[in-house]
Amino acid sequence: MELNDEQYSRIRDILYDDWGIFELDQLKILFKSHINSKRRFEKIKTLPSLFRVLEKRDILGPGHIESLNRVIQVCAPRNVEINNIISNRTGSNVYGHGMPNSLHSGSPIRMEQPGSPQDFSNYPIAKIANVIGCRIGSDWQELARALRMPEGQIDMLGVSSLSGSHIQLLLNYHYETYGTSWERWRTELQRGLVSVGRKDLSEIIDEILVFHPFNYVSR
Fold first, then answer.
1. Which residues contact 3 (CB under 8 A, 6 or more apart)?
2. Per-residue pLDDT tens for 58-68?
3. Which of 4, 129, 160, 185 has the fewest CB atoms within 10 Å of its CB?
């Protein structure tokens, strides 16, 4: 079921008050294939400007709950008012898309395999990327080398904004190197973090996956 205009506008207003540059960079990568214009992509500097672009392309709006949920998961995944608006309208919530029982029972939520490098909506993966991106600091290049990324690619990422570099680093590593093997992705990422002296971040990944588990898919 769709949101009505008033509900959609209220959610959008809440999101406008709860975003940062890091979240904006993550969303731009998530919706990059829909923006489909380098010039337009580079001009997006705020969340409202991203909304305007996606609304014009009929990607966001009252009838596009799935796309709106992706934005919510990045900017305000725990906002009670937003979750209530969506739950009251659709009988679902911003996390389970109609699976509230599994959330309350503590059982793992089945996450569908992302379909492309731009699809970063898997909540545990997004949360891990967000934490590492915020805390890795100057160690990110050593982490990239530990993950065996080519030096040319590291140099290319280095000219980007700091937050955007971190997100792109994780996206490229996950999708290009390990694809559908979630367990191997997690193992190699944690090994890389420990090798650059960031055992603290490796332990945080374990904590995230305790509360936000996903089913691993082996090759």
1. 11, 62, 63, 65, 68, 85, 86, 89
2. 999 999 988 89
3. 4
User: Which CATH number goes with the domain that contains 153?
Assistant: 1.10.533.10
* pLDDT value at residue 169: 64
Cβ–Cβ < 8 Å for 213, 129: no
Residues above pLDDT 70, as percent of the chain: 67
pLDDT beyond 80 at 73: yes
Nearest to 131 by CA among 190, 50, 48: 190
Distance CA 55, CA 112 (A): 25
What's the distance, Cα to Cα, between the start and end of the chain in Å? Answer: 36
Which value, in Å, is the radius of gyration of the alpha carbons in the chain? 18
Report the C-alpha gap between 103 and 30 in whole angstroms: 25
Better-scored residue on pLDDT, 47 or 128: 47
pLDDT confidence of residue 216: 41
Domain count, the chain: 2
**97 and 91 Cβ atoms separated by less than 8 Å:** no
Do 80 and 151 have their domain in common? no
Asked if 55 and 136 sit in the same domain, the reply is no
Beta-ladder partners of 214: 109
* Domain-embedded: residue 110: no
Amino acid at position 2, single letter: E
* Of the candidates 177, 186, 183, the residue with the CA atom closest to the CA atom of residue 204: 186
Residue 134 in any domain: the answer is yes
Domain residue limits at 62: 5-88
